[in-house]
């Protein structure tokens, strides 16, 4: 029964995502033949049994409380108006900060996946516990069901402009929180799961000077799809990975590494990619393709591949991409992880406690970038 419920959880997410995308495609009258991706070198890891938390046999997805229980801190609710309309958000502010005069704190933006809310992601990731220990604020924007029936961020709606409008609206939420709380706008990072991961990458690509780091967990490069009609092919890894139009391929402008250079005056923030090699919703091919694409845009070169294993948690195949000794991209392919937050809280859908602690990995990655400011 547990195995059956795990399969139900993941297959229901895939079906819901597919129904939603097809509905958008029919509404737009769009139809597009998927373009086969070019071969991309892929890290291979031995398959392991998935330990995604099961869903009860009723088939109903457990829901967190509308407002998460504070963890020695305060939850601030708000609404941010923007080009995509108003979006609600919650911000977690640790208590007892005892700020020094003029001190401001880092901010981490966390973007939920489909069929989730910011509250769900807070419960699964337990990022607020790290925020309390490390003294930073966490922002959880909420997608409106009127904008997407499954609660997905519309990262794939580039052609209609909806994706860019939602990215701008999330940025408006960042600015609103910064006006009301002691946020250091030079130390802002963004992370997300699934559709939230793709939106996180889109934010970093469109506003590279506003974010000093970005983390994608089980997502797709945000320029790989332009509409709902081809988003499913992008999720399956059967389209050429692309960055948004702001970062076109520039084969004529080569760096001393022999890779395409980023457009003059722009620099992508460092990227962490986390993805399970057993993901049945978003193909792991997207992880390697996104890492290579981001590294090429940054002019970075791959270092030696290595295996990282700690205790009984799933092992990871790791590759870093560096430019002149500076980390540009860090790729972590997790063996046996399905479409779930790695190392997340137990008894939650799309959360696998047996994986490496994704929240700790994300914070360690962004904190290194914060120290450079």
Topology, element by element:
Blueprint: H1 2-28, E1 73-80, E2 87-94, E3 105-111, H2 118-125, H3 127-134, E4 137-141, H4 162-180, E5 183-193, H5 195-206, E6 213-217, H6 228-235, E7 271-276, H7 285-298, E8 301-302, E9 306-308, E10 316-323, E11 326-334, E12 341-342, E13 351-352, H8 358-370
Parallel strand pairs: 3-4, 3-5, 5-6, 6-7, 7-11, 12-13
Antiparallel strand pairs: 1-2, 2-4, 8-10, 9-10, 10-11
Helix pairs in contact: 1-6, 4-5
Helicity level: 25-40%
Globally, the shape reads: globular
What number is the mean pLDDT? 82
**Distance between the terminal alpha carbons, to the nearest Å?**
51 Å
Number of strands: 13
H/E series: HEEEHHEHEHEHEHEEEEEEH
Main beta sheet: 11 strands, mixed
- Helix and strand composition category: alpha/beta
Percent of residues in beta strands = 15-25%
Radius of gyration: 19 Å
Low-confidence spans:
1-10, 23-71, 248-265
Number of helices: 8
Folded structure, characterized:
Mean pLDDT is 82; it is low at 1-10, 23-71 and 248-265. It is built from 8 helices and 13 strands. It is of the alpha/beta class and 373 residues long. It is globular, with a radius of gyration of 19 Å. The strands form 2 sheets. Strands 1, 2, 3, 4, 5, 6, 7, 8, 9, 10 and 11 form an 11-stranded mixed beta sheet that branches. α1 packs antiparallel against α6 (228-235) and α4 (162-180) packs across α5.
């Amino acid at each position: 029964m547990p195995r059956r419920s795990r399969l139900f959880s993941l297959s229901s997410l895939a079906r819901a995502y597919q129904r939603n995308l097809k509905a958008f495609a029919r509404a737009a009258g769009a139809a597009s033949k998927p373009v086969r991706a070019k071969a991309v070198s892929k890290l291979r890891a031995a398959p392991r049994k998935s330990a995604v938390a099961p869903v009860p046999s009723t088939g109903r997805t457990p829901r967190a409380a509308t407002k998460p229980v504070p963890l020695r801190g305060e939850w601030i609710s708000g609404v941010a108006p923007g080009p995509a309309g108003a979006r609600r958000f919650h911000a977690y502010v640790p208590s007892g900060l005892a700020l020094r005069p003029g001190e401001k704190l880092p901010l981490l933006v966390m973007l939920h996946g489909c069929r989730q809310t910011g509250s769900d992601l807070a419960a699964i990731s337990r990022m607020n516990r790290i925020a309390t220990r490390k003294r930073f604020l966490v922002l959880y924007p909420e997608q409106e069901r009127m904008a997407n029936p499954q609660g997905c961020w519309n990262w794939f709606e580039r052609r209609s402009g909806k994706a860019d409008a939602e990215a701008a609206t999330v940025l408006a939420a960042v600015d609103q929180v910064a006006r009301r709380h002691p946020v250091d706008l030079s130390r802002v990072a963004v992370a997300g799961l699934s559709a939230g991961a793709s939106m996180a990458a889109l934010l970093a690509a469109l506003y590279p000077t506003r974010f000093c780091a970005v983390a994608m967990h089980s997502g797709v490069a945000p320029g790989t799809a332009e509409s709902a009609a081809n988003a499913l092919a992008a999720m399956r890894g059967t389209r050429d990975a692309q960055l948004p139009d702001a970062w076109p391929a520039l084969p004529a402008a080569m760096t001393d590494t022999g890779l395409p250079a980023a457009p003059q005056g722009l620099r992508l923030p460092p990227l962490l990619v986390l993805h399970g090699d057993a993901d049945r919703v978003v193909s792991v091919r997207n992880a390697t393709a996104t890492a290579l694409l981001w590294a090429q845009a940054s002019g970075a070169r791959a270092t030696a591949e290595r295996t990282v294993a700690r205790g009984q948690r799933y092992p990871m195949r790791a590759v870093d991409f560096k430019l002149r000794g500076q980390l540009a991209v860090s790729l972590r392919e997790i063996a046996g992880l399905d479409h779930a937050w790695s190392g997340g809280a137990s008894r939650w859908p799309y959360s696998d406690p047996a994986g490496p602690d994704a929240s700790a990995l994300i914070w360690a990655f962004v904190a290194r970038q914060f120290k450079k400011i």
